[in-house]
Amino acid sequence: MFGKFFKLVFILIILSVIAVAVTPLNLYYDKASKHLKPLVMTGVGGTAVKGSAEKLKYQQLPLGEAEWLLYPNWFNSLGGKLRVRGAHHDLTAALDHASEARVVIQSLRGYIDWSILKPFLHMRYGQMEGYLNFDMSRLRFEKNGGLKGASGSITLQDFKMIKPSLKDMGTVTLVFETQQEGMVTGVISSDSAVMTVSGTLFLQPNRWKLSVDIIPKGGHFELDSVLSGVGQARRGGGRRLNLAGFY
């Protein structure tokens, strides 16, 4: 009797998975959306297994278009790939485990253009270009505890000053390491002939703190005016940027 019962349950589970896989997502997204918060999607198409959204938001932060290919890897979690892209970014996450309470990203690859980073630095003069290259792994998030762990790097590369003069700015790299569960440290360093950049990014449950020193090297006086709106003046020259917040 129990053998027949478990066989029936197994068949029902398989049928449910098939039904979700082939049913158009837009037919039931309104009911399912509450389980995705704080993610919000509009213009959904395809299915829950292979689909897309015209717009994806995390809380109030727009993430652009989204597309995904997912599969169940346990009765209450998913694995697969999620890609978000827009005019100035393109990121792909390989999901190891995603459930209502926890998300583990096996890898995060892609780029974000300098134009997205620039407003946070309050640079009023000059013109620069470049992009942030993401090479991250083992990012672990919990719904109630925020970021629990991360490793890998983010590199600002192809970084150039266009105005007031053309300069190769070198590279700036942020390397992440998990010190302990829920405490991630990012060390900032540079490889540049025109400036020295150093600092630390601290990530703790639901909060972050950034401290960066930017010091132009001798003979590159244009950087002083370009960086004049970044943070505060630093004793000994250059600028110091201190930021903190919650997520």
Report on this model:
The protein is α+β, with helices and mostly antiparallel strands. The chain folds into two domains: 64 residues, no CATH class; 160 residues, no CATH class. Helix content is 15%, strand content 61%. It is built from four helices and 14 strands. It has a 14-stranded antiparallel sheet. A hairpin with a 3-residue loop joins strand 10 and strand 11. The radius of gyration is 22 Å and the shape is elongated. The termini are far apart. 16% of the residues are buried. The N terminus is likely disordered.
Sheet/helix structural class: alpha+beta
Cα shape: elongated
How large is the radius of gyration? 22 Å
Helix amount? 10-25%
Give the mean pLDDT: 84
- Number of helices, counting only DSSP H or I runs of 4 residues or more: 4
Characterize the main sheet: 14 strands, antiparallel
Count of DSSP strands: 14
Elements, N to C (H/E): HHEEEEEEHEEEEEEHEE
Terminal CA distance reads 52 Å
Percent range for β-strand residues: over 45%
Number of domains: 2
Spatial strand order of the main sheet: 1-2-3-4-5-6-7-8-9-10-11-12-14-13
Low-confidence stretches: 1-22
Please provide a brief summary of the model:
By secondary structure, the chain is an alpha+beta fold. Helix content is 15%, strand content 61%. It folds into two domains: 1-64, no CATH class; 87-246, no CATH class.
What is the strand and helix layout of this fold?
Blueprint: H1 2-22, H2 29-32, E1 39-46, E2 50-58, E3 61-74, E4 77-86, E5 89-98, E6 102-113, H3 114-121, E7 127-142, E8 146-163, E9 167-180, E10 183-191, E11 195-204, E12 207-216, H4 222-226, E13 232-233, E14 239-246
Antiparallel strand pairs: 1-2, 2-3, 3-4, 4-5, 5-6, 6-7, 7-8, 8-9, 9-10, 10-11, 11-12, 12-14, 13-14
